Amino acid sequence: MTIGRDTVVLFDASCLVAAGGSSRGGSAFVLRLCARGYLRGAVSRPILAEAERNTREKMGDLAAVQLERLLLAADLTRILVPVWNVASGVNEKDRHVVAAAVAGRADVILTLDRPLASEVNLSALATVAMTPGDFIRQELPTHPDFPFAHH
Q1: Is the pLDDT of residue 84 over 80?
Q2: Of the candidates 150, 101, 111, 115, which has an alpha carbon nearest to the alpha carbon of residue 134?
Q3: Whole-angstrom Cα distance, residue 70 to residue 66?
Q4: 37, 48, 119, 125: which has the fewest Cβ within 10 Å?
């Protein structure tokens, strides 16, 4: 896959929680790339609600504030999650994530949930799923602005 400024990256709640907890991690880095216009970030309301709740409960108010700042700067596209179900091979708790990826025509789902990534990658979907670290190592170097994206 070759990525560019039009590449749509859907953030799973697990990545957003990680970004709230660490401003130096891969999730926060990819959010900053979205804020700078190198990628098009996307999220759905259910993903946001889960991320905000889990960040506050697991990491506290400071992490929740950091996540909020990153989200505001990244100006992610909000995808309406369709009511229909997606492939039965996807765990029921994760179907809304896949539905958002399909509805938003996401090229990539960023997730720290390896079972979700495996289910997506074994499906017939055009979207791939990977961790932020894998995305940064494997896909980001194909971006035409890559030499500038990491500064």
Answers
A1: no
A2: 111
A3: 6
A4: 37
